[in-house]
Write a structure and sequence with these properties.
Order of helices and strands of chain B: HHHHHHHHHHHHHHHH
Number of strands of chain B: 0
Number of domains of chain B: 2
Helix content of chain A: over 70%
CATH topology of chain A: MetI-like fold
Radius of gyration of chain A: 24 Å
Shape of chain A: globular
Largest sheet of chain A: 2 strands, antiparallel
Oligomer: heterodimer
Structural class of chain A: mainly alpha
Order of helices and strands of chain A: HEEHHHHHHHHHHHH
Helix content of chain B: 55-70%
Radius of gyration of chain B: 25 Å
CATH superfamily of the largest domain in chain B: MetI-like
CATH topology of the largest domain in chain B: MetI-like fold
Number of helices of chain B: 16
């Protein structure tokens, strides 16, 4: 798309684009190319020489049982975070939408957790659920339930899932509420007059009309669970106990920064890039369709 | 008017309470961890460490905040004084937010208001950065920054995060809605491209700029993985990283009072921005994700 009336300076547009293009080339395109290059090369122990090895790094990564275990953890983690935060946000948004008079006060009280860093959300949960000092962590143990997320795999995963979902609800809530308020009242009133109850109205009218929002949020939440929750996991469990809460992005950090395995870490980065590009492509296909119909 | 509402019945009133109860429970689940943290920051480390934190404020508030704010040594943990970490976080958040807005608005202006060779090539190059979040390209980006000698500097902390396809796309979308008549009138009046940008486009973009600022400020303040890699020295530490470093491996006997005070301080600026600029925040969020 292009405007009809334009300015016709020759050099000015290039000057205006220069800063963004420079940053993009140096810090996006170049590192991405580096990752691609390193992913098909093997460096010697001193980092002096490297040899082309084709897809060997990928083969090594994908046949490593530890990596496949991490894939499994990531899928369980991301699916749980996405479903939990979407479902609670939808429930709250539908409820807030039905109470229009009070909804703006509730809105303020429900959206501010968006401002918290994932790592800070994790720390808040630690204050509550730490088995030594946390009020609920101690209560669980006093009730006879052996709670220590630092030692128990399942409890650790539950803990990071809850902390990561808790932080994401407010984001989903804002979008669901905006989506709900765009649904014409007349449609719901007509159904109400026809005798459809609240539950039936929700499943036959509200939920289908909300599906573009839901689908968009689905993609955003998966991306969030994949990448932005690094802080949650790093602050809460460091991927442990063992590798129980190690997700794909945590492993890239672990292999690249802590273990200095550049080839393997780059191959993992490339795999992640492919995942993000696929998710973004799906999202854009959907956005295009939404724009087309509206 | 809905007759059910006009004449309240006892059953109707009871049913009306259910949504409020659900919403209040939601509010409570979000507020409770914050409440506990604020209370914790008013007690001494021993009380918290024994696991007997009361649910009412204690008397150590001033001591805790003063110590966390300006000292670097608690009873058990060494930490960078919070005032230094908050300053670093503030610089990072402001440079990222304002830098992103500045470079995106001029590049969007170039793409929307000029026709020139390679225009679409540049547009697509900016567009694909949307698909490369910093976490994905973290190791190679770190190497580039290291080769440029920018480790442990504000430049290394901020510039790699400044390119933003989202902001560019948002501004471009908005610029396409500026009527052609306005541009023609400006040209007839003899205004050049830069004059038009400063006198017309910038004032029209005010709301979009405010909305983006809120989102980007929070994005910058909450960065985690990138500052974790880029900063080495205590003087460059940001406050979110500082908290997890103070916690270490979470021994029961540590300066929980200072950690909680630091956490409260770390939350204040982004929460204040969201609450005070709520209108722009919601607009910015919904618009920038379109």
């Amino acid at each position: 798309m292009q405007r009809r009336v334009i300015f016709d300076n020759k050099a000015l547009p290039y000057l205006l684009l220069a800063p963004q293009v420079a940053v993009t080339l140096i810090f996006f395109i170049w590192p991405a190319a580096q990752a691609l290059w390193q992913s098909v090369h093997l460096q010697d122990a001193f980092g002096l020489r490297s040899q082309f090895v084709g897809l060997e790094n990928f083969q090594a990564v994908l046949s490593d049982p530890n990596y496949l275990e991490t894939v499994k953890t990531t899928i369980i983690f991301s699916a749980s975070v996405t479903i939990l935060s979407l479902a609670s946000a939808l429930g709250l948004a539908v409820t807030a939408d039905s109470k229009i008079r009070a909804s703006s006060a509730y809105k303020t009280l429900l959206i501010w957790p968006y401002a918290l860093a994932p790592a800070v959300a994790a720390v808040l949960w630690m204050f509550i659920f730490n088995p030594d000092i946390g009020i609920l962590g101690r209560a669980l143990n006093n009730l006879g339930y052996a709670w220590d997320y630092r030692l128990n795999d399942g409890q650790a995963l539950t803990m990071v899932i809850l902390a990561a979902s808790w932080k994401q609800v407010s984001y989903n809530f804002i979008f669901f509420l905006a989506g709900l308020q765009a649904i014409p009242r007349s449609v719901l009133e007509a159904a109400s007059i026809d005798g459809a109850g609240a539950v039936r109205r929700f499943w036959t009218i509200t939920f289908p009309l909300l599906s573009p929002t839901t689908f968009f949020l689905l993609v955003v939440n998966i991306v969030y669970a994949f990448f932005e929750t690094f802080g949650t996991i790093h602050a809460l469990t460091h991927g442990g106990p063992g590798k129980a809460t190690e997700t794909l992005i945590f492993r890239v950090y672990q292999d690249g920064v802590v273990n200095h395995d550049l080839g393997g870490s780059s191959a993992q980065s490339v795999i992640l890039m492919v995942i993000v590009i696929a998710l973004t492509a799906i999202q854009f296909r959907f956005v295009e369709r939404k724009v087309h119909y509206s | 008017m809905n007759p059910d509402r006009a004449t309240p019945r006892s059953g109707g009133r009871l049913m009306d309470m259910v949504p409020h109860l659900i919403l209040m429970m939601g509010v409570l689940i979000f507020a409770f961890p914050i409440y506990v943290t604020v209370i914790g920051s008013t007690w001494d480390a021993a009380t918290i460490g024994r696991g007997n934190l009361p649910l009412t404020p204690g008397g150590e508030m001033l001591n805790n905040y003063a110590s966390a704010w300006s000292e670097s040594q608690g009873n058990r943990v060494m930490h960078t004084p919070v005032r230094i970490m908050m300053w670093n976080s503030l610089v990072m958040a402001l440079v990222i937010a304002l830098g992103k807005i500045a470079i995106s608005i001029i590049s969007a202006y170039a793409v929307a208001f000029f026709r020139f060779p390679l225009r679409m090539v540049f547009f697509w190059m900016i567009f694909i950065t949307l698909m490369l979040p910093v976490e994905v390209r973290i190791i190679p980006t770190y190497e580039v920054v290291a080769n440029l000698g920018l480790i442990d500097s504000y430049a290394g902390l901020t510039i790699p995060l400044i390119a933003s396809a989202t902001a560019t796309l948002l501004f471009r979308q908005f610029f396409l809605t500026i009527p052609d008549e306005l541009v023609e009138a400006a040209k007839i009046d003899g205004a050049g491209a830069l004059r038009f940008f400063v006198d017309v486009v910038l004032p029209l973009s005010r709301t979009n700029i405010a909305a983006l600022f809120v989102i980007l400020f929070i994005y910058g303040w909450n960065q985690y993985l990138w500052p974790l890699l880029i900063t080495n020295s205590a003087e460059m530490e940001t406050v979110v990283i500082g908290i997890t470093k103070m916690i270490g491996n979470g021994e029961a006997a540590t300066d929980w009072n200072l950690i909680m005070a630091t956490t409260v301080l770390a939350m204040l600026p982004p929460v204040a921005v969201v609450v005070l600029m709520q209108r722009w925040f919601v607009k910015g969020l919904v618009d920038s994700e379109k």
